[in-house]
Design goal:
Blueprint lengths: L3 H16 L2 E2 L1 H7 E7 L2 E6 L5 E7 L4 E7 H14 L1
Antiparallel strand pairs: 1-5, 2-3, 3-4, 4-5
């Protein structure tokens, strides 16, 4: 059962993703703190809620997209382990 706070957080994240599916470099710097880069991927912290995660990016033109929160990745890995 979801608490009211959890429902608000899910709704906020859903709206956030729908309204900002891509970021250019300037927008990324406004919305995220960059932790590290790897080939085609960047590790970030979302500024508005401190959520750690990863994003994909294209080199030319430089566009960042597909933010995935770290806890979502951990939850998926846990589910996969339970299935095996």
């Amino acid at each position: 059962m979801l608490t009211n706070e959890m429902e608000k957080a899910f709704e906020m994240e859903k709206n956030y993703k729908l309204n900002r599916p891509e970021w250019n470099t300037k927008e990324l710097q406004e919305d995220f703190e960059v932790i590290s880069f790897s080939y085609g991927m960047v590790s970030v912290v979302r500024k508005f809620d401190g959520q750690k995660g990863f994003m994909d990016f294209n080199h030319s033109p430089r566009v960042y997209f597909n933010f995935i929160a770290t806890d979502q990745i951990e939850e998926k890995m846990k589910c996969r382990k339970e299935l095996n």
